[in-house]
What we know:
Order of helices and strands: HHHHHEHEHEHEHEEEHEEHH
Number of domains: 1
Mean pLDDT: 80
Strand order of the largest sheet: 1-9-8-2-5-3-4
Helix content: 40-55%
Structural class: alpha/beta
CATH architecture: 3-Layer(aba) Sandwich
CATH class: Alpha Beta
Radius of gyration: 19 Å
Number of helices: 12
Distance between the termini: 33 Å
Low-confidence stretches: 2-18, 176-180, 313-322
Amino acid sequence: MNDARSPQRDWAGRKERGSFVLMKLTALMARWLGRRVLTPLLYVIVFYFYASDRRGRRSIHQYQTRLAAWSGRAELKPTSHSVFKQYLAFAECLLDRLDVWNGKLRLEQVQLDDPADVRMRLLQSRGQGRGQILVCAHLGNLDVCRAMAELGEQVPLNVLVHTHHVGHYNRLLGEAGEHRMRLIQVSELDTALMMDLAQRIERGEWLAIAGDRVPLHGGRCIQVNFLGETAPMPQGPWLMAGMLRCPVNLIHCLKVEGRYTIHLEPYIEAPAWERGEREAAIQRWAQGYADRLAQHCLDAPRQWFNFYPYWQSPGTEATHAR
């Protein structure tokens, strides 16, 4: 376990200028001009943020370098064009998010990869049984999953967030008169919060939390091997699972060849640990999650949207400065 500040934790104190301003501009232009007219202008908007965000470019370059080396796929090595394409993929994801909450993307337009039938358990919890945990990542478009649960399936889904930045997006949806997500801001897993979450689980509600971002205010993280290098990831999802004693599932929503697919996978059926073994259990679960996340990154290499230094590598920023 590690409480020291890391390059990754800088995201918490950083005003996410690019993502929210780009989100705002994209939403306004999409509303007044329509998506078809906006598409050519999107390149101009994205290029501005690409050109002015040196730190973001370095971070994406770092990620693409790690992914290419870990996978052995030379075609994934970063270039200026591939870094720009990741910015463009983020902007297109924002447009898709607005389509989701505007009802333009319907349940039948989304494919479901769910060999273990996690969706059925999700539906059954509405009237009986306990809820479960969905651990996601900043990979692909999670709003598709949230909207399908809230609007398509009418399933109570609570999204736990570590940062006030998500409030910007919630406000943007509110200004547009759209559905508001059920967000629960999490700064620390204290007694009051755990009691509230336990009650939600007992009511058959589900909890969704990202497993690839460390929390605000010096929250504890754990070191894992991600894409061949040591990286900090939060212990919160795994600590919460063990304390609530409820099953954990993994979820990702990736856009491949213009079509979204939601991937659902059971991960931990009965999370628990023996006395003195908590850290070992959390380490094991976090590493397994990192391994699965890495594999999904290969399915959609330009859709992991973390625009800040992620790995603790001395001299990384200088090495990848552009």
